Amino acid sequence: MNRYFSALAALCCIACHQATADQISPNPNPTTGDIFVEMGNTDFNAENPFDNHGYLSISFGGTLINNAGALLNNASEAHALLEVWGSLDNEGTLGNNGVIVVEHLGIINNSGNLNSGYIIAIRQGGTIVNNGTIDNKATSEIQNAGTIVTNGAFINDGSLSGSGTVVGSVNDSGVVAPGDAAAVHTIDGDWSKTGGSLEIELGGTSDGGGDKSLTEFDWVDVTGDVTLAGQLNVSLLDGFALDDFQQFPIINVGGSLTGQFDGLAEGALVGNFGRSLFITYVGGDGNDVALFTTNAIPEPSTLLLAAVFALCGGHWLRVRRQN
C-alpha cells in the first residue's frame, strides 16, 4: 500500500488543530497502516504511549510533539517507518527499532532521549538538534548526509556513516565510516573515539582541494580535539592502485591529538595492497593522522622508520591540508 511495506490497513489522520494521541486512535497504532500529520501541532502525552508499526509521516508544515514523560516508539521491525518532512519535537522518549528518515528541510528537535536500535537516515538538508541525549546503540546506524547539532550527549556505540556534519562533541565506541564511496565526515567539535573502528576507503590521492565533495579518499575533519583508540580498517575502491610516495591525510585535527589506533604505533605497517601502507600521527601540520606509501624500505620496522623520520624531519609528510 506504500513504498516501504505491505500495508494491512490504512489510518489517515489530518492534524489541522491541537490533538492528543488518544484523539488520533483509542489504542497505539497496532497495524501496518498509515498516519499523516499535515498542518498544525499534534501532541503525544504520557497517558497514552504510542507504538508505530506502520508508516508515520510528518509533512511540511506539520509538527508532532512528543511531550515530556511520553513515549513514541517506532516499533521493533524494519518495516516501521517514521518520515520527517516537517518538525518532530521530542521532549520525552523517542525509541527507534525501525527506520527514521529526516528528509530535506525536516528537523528533529530532541530535548529528551532518542534511543535508536536500527536506522536513522538524515538526508542532505535534514537536521537533528540535540539538547538531550542521542544513544545510537550497537545494533543501530546513523546515515548522516545532513547535520546533527548536539549540545547534549551524543553516544555512538553503533555506526555513524555519511558525508554530513556533526556540530558538537561525539563520544564514539562504534563504527565511523565516512561514505559508501570516498567522502568526508565533519565533526565541528571534539571526537573521543574509545573503541570500535574507523573505516577508510582509498580511491585516489586528492582530498578535494577545499571542496570536500571532490575527495578521492575517506577522511574525517575534526575542528577540536581527537582521542584515538579502536581499529583502523582500510580498503581500496575499485580500480585504484597504490603507488610509491603517496599520502592520505585521513584525520584532520584542529586541536590536540592523543592516543593511537590499536596495534598501530607511529610508522607501523597498516597493510600491503600491492604497495606497503604505513601510518603516521604527525602528518599535516604536525598532529594529523596520515597514511603513506614509500619504496625506500619495503618492510620497515617501526624503529627503523622512526629513524628515517628523525633524519628527514618528517617534512615530506607535513603538507598542510587546504581548507
TrEMBL record:
The keyword Signal applies. This is PEP-CTERM protein-sorting domain-containing protein. Residues 1-21 form the signal peptide. Keywords: Signal.
